[in-house]
Amino acid sequence: MSTAASPAISVPSTQLDLGKIRADFPILSERAYGKPLVYLDNAASSQKPKAVIDALVRYYSTSNANVHRGVHFLSQKASQEFDEVRLKLRDYIHAASEREIVFVRGATEGINLVASSWGRANLHPGDEVLVSGMEHHSNIVPWQLVCAERGATVRHIPILDNGELDLDAYHQLLGPKVRLVAVVHTSNSLGTVNPVKTMIDSAHAKNIPVLVDGAQTLAHGTVDVSELDCDFLVFSGHKMLGPTGIGVLYGKEALLEAMPPYQGGGEMIHSVSFDGTTFNELPYKFEAGTPNIADVIALGSALDYWASLDRTVVAEWEEQLLAYATASIATIPGVRIIGTAKRKSGVLSFIVEGLNALDIGMFLDTQGIAVRTGHHCTEPVMDRFGIPGTVRASFMFYNTAEEVDRFVEALRKAIHLLRKG
Ligand SMILES: Cc1ncc(COP(=O)(O)O)c(C=O)c1O
To answer: 418, 362 in Cβ contact below 8 A?
Structure first.
C-alpha cells in the first residue's frame, strides 16, 4: 500500500503481471546496500531479461564461429542466427529491405557513420545541419566535427519553457542552406516526445532529409520508418532490453547506396587489389570487420521478448507510472520539474531549490534507489534552463508503483536531511 503519495493521488494499477515480468529480469531482485534495488536509471540503460542473457551464453556455448566466412557447420549456424536478426529488425521497424539495416555499436556510432559518410559527401561550405536544442551530445558533436571540416554550420531549434521544441522557429530555420535535419524523437533529459512526423514532412517539402535519433523511443515503443518516412533512424540495443555494444542504423536504401563506406576492412569489400578496391553490397558495405555476432543474436532475443508483451498495456503502464511519479514529487516543496511537455515518455527530470542534484542522487543511492544526476549528455539543455544538472528518474514497464513510492519517500527524506545540512 502506498504511503508516499498524497491521498489525492491515486495509485495506478496494471493488467501486466508485474511479478512474472520482474522474475524475468534477474537483476531486479538484487539488493543495494542491503535494501531492495529500485532501478530508475532506465534511460541510461535498460535491464535485461534472462532470455537475453541466456542467448549470449547459448551462442558462445553452441554456435560460436565467425559469420559469412566459413563453409563449416558452426559458421553456417552462426551466420543463420545472425542474419535472422537483421530480418527481424527489418520487420520490427517496417523497413523496406534488410539492406537498410546496418549493425553499429549503438546510436552514437550510427550518427557518426552518417555524419562521416553522408556528411563528407554532401556538406559544402555555407551549408547548414539543423539539430534541436535537446539533442544528446551524440547528435551534436559528430555534426560539429564534420561541419568544421566541410565549412558548414550546425544550427539548432530552440526549446520552449515547457521543454517542447519551438516549431515556429523550426519552420523559420528550415531555410535553403539546410542540408539535413537531425532530431531526437524522445529527449533523454526532458522526456519530451517530439512531433517528428510533422517535422519530417516539413523538411521533405523542401527536399531536406531527416535523421531521427530513436535511442529513447525504441526503449518504450516501436518506430515505423515507412509511416514516419525518416531517411535515417538510429537506436541502441542496450536501452531496449538488449546487450551493450550493438545498435542499428536504418537508412533508406537509395541514400545508403550513394554513400561512401565509413570504415575499411574485411566484409565490406567485394574485391581488393593494389590497383583498387570495390565494395560489397548493402548493408555489408558499412560493416567492416567481424561483427558483434553474439550481441546481435541476443538483440534478437530482446525483440522476441518485446513480442511476448502486450505493447498497448505496456505503454499505458509506463504512462501511468510517469504520471504517478510526476504528481507525487510535484507535491514536495521546492521541487521543480524540468520538462513539462504535453507528450512525454519515460523520463522525470527535476531539481530541488537550494540543493545539489548530485547530493540528492547520492542519498537516494544509499536507499537502494538508482537515479541519474547531472547533464545527461545534454549540456545545451541545462544551459537553456540555466541549471547545472537535474536528478533524473526514468521508468520502464517492469517498475512498480511501490518503487515509485519508495523513490518519493526517499526523496522527501533526502530533502529534509540535506536542508538541515
Ligand atoms: C537520446 C539519446 N541519443 C543517443 C544516445 C547515445 O546512445 P549510445 O550511448 O547507446 O550510443 C543516448 C544515450 O543515452 C540517448 O539517450
So the answer is: no
Three-state secondary structure readout of 158-170? CECCCCCECHHHH
- Of the residues 377, 388, 402, 418, only one is catalytic, namely 377
Determine contact, residues 398/21, Cβ cutoff 8 Å. yes
Distance 215 CA to ligand 1 centre (A): 5
State the DSSP code for 9: S
Confidence of residue 421 (pLDDT cuts 50, 70, 90): confident
**377 catalytic per annotation:** yes
Q: List pLDDT tens digits, range 254-301.
A: 999 999 999 999 999 999 999 999 999 999 999 999 999 999 999 999
Which residue stretches of 259-400 are H helix?
293-307, 311-330, 357-366, 379-385
C-alpha 107 to ligand 1 mean position (Å): 6
CA 65 to centroid of chain Cα atoms: 30
C-alpha cell at 30: 538484487
pTM greater than the 0.90 cutoff: yes
State whether the beta carbon of 106 lies less than 6 angstroms from ligand 1: yes
pLDDT digit string, tens, across residues 79-137: 999 999 999 999 999 999 999 999 999 999 999 999 999 999 999 999 999 999 999 99
